[in-house]
């Protein structure tokens, strides 16, 4: 498994998304389709982007009772995306049901804690009193035990996840920014080169590419810094 840069296509419409992707002539980047775009356009946007030759991470973060998750993942499996996720906080039973519904052809990963969540928010808003890093590692181990392929985690946690779950357990890390970019609403962030050093397998990059004056150059810079 090689490293890759995933572009977060956090656009509101099909038109915006395809206009952006049409800029990429030489290389078809791996893209992430999130809730906003999927709920706006439905499965048709997934099919269109796949038809154009892109790999797709369908970022819907499913979290529900095991039976509902099993059935929902079975539906998503028909879209032939390359990666799907659910929340690790849904318990082992839910993650096992997700694996059963999705099958084994698609990469299935779990969200440990959102990169917008810091220690204070986890303690006060969620009433989880443990250390944030301890919670992330516990969720990662639960995901592996449930048959998942990896986790979404902060790049700050990727190295430790590999230590506790093995080097073949995939780490997908959002919250990646160039040094000159603002953090935005992300709390736990890192640069592409730093994410490479710490052992991330995939990085998800949104606004630093999609809002760049030259998205192609920004994407190529990401690839150079992260992949080499």
Q: Can you walk through the features of this model?
A:
The chain is an alpha/beta fold. The protein is built from eleven helices and eight strands. The protein has an eight-stranded parallel β-barrel with strand order 1-2-3-4-5-6-7-8, surrounded by six helices. Helix 4 packs parallel to helix 5, helix 7 (132-145) packs across helix 8 and helix 9 (192-198) packs parallel to helix 11. The radius of gyration is 17 Å and the shape is globular.
Distance between the termini: 15 Å
Number of helices: 11
* Unreliable stretches: none
Number of strands: 8
Oligomer: single chain
The H-and-E topology, N to C, reads as EHEHHEHEHEHHEHEHEHH
Helical content, roughly?
40-55%
Integer average pLDDT: 92
Percentage of residues in DSSP E strands: 15-25%
Major sheet: arrangement of strands:
1-2-3-4-5-6-7-8
Which structural class fits the helix and strand makeup? alpha/beta
Shape: globular
Mind telling me the C-alpha Rg?
17 Å
Largest sheet: 8 strands, parallel, barrel
Short description:
The protein is α/β, with parallel strands linked by helices and 228 residues long.
What's the topology here?
Layout: E1 4-8, H1 14-21, E2 30-33, H2 35-41, H3 43-51, E3 56-62, H4 66-76, E4 83-87, H5 91-102, E5 107-111, H6 119-124, H7 132-145, E6 150-152, H8 155-165, E7 170-173, H9 192-198, E8 202-205, H10 207-210, H11 215-226
Parallel strand pairs: 1-2, 1-8, 2-3, 3-4, 4-5, 5-6, 6-7, 7-8
Helix pairs in contact: 4-5, 7-8, 9-11
């Amino acid at each position: 498994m090689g490293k890759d840069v995933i572009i977060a296509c956090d656009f509101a419409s099909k038109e915006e998304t395809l206009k952006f992707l049409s800029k990429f002539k030489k290389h078809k980047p791996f893209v992430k389709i999130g809730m906003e775009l999927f709920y706006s356009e439905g499965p048709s946007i997934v099919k269109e982007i796949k038809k154009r030759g892109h790999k797709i991470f369908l970022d819907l973060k499913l979290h529900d009772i095991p039976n509902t998750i099993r059935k929902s993942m079975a539906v998503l499996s028909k879209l032939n995306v390359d990666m799907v996720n659910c929340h690790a906080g849904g318990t082992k039973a839910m993650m096992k049901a997700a694996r059963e519904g999705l099958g084994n052809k698609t990469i299935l990963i779990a969200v440990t804690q959102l990169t917008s969540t810091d220690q204070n928010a986890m303690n006060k808003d969620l009433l989880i009193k443990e250390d944030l890093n301890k919670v992330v590692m516990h969720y990662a181990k639960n995901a592996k035990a449930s048959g998942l392929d990896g986790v979404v985690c902060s790049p700050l946690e990727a190295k430790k996840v590999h230590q506790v779950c093995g080097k073949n357990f995939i780490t997908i890390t959002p919250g990646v920014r160039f040094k000159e970019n603002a953090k935005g609403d992300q709390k736990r962030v890192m640069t592409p080169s730093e994410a490479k050093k710490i052992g991330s397998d995939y990085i998800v990059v949104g606004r630093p590419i999609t809002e760049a004056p030259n998205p192609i150059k920004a994407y190529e810079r990401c690839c150079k810094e992260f992949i080499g």
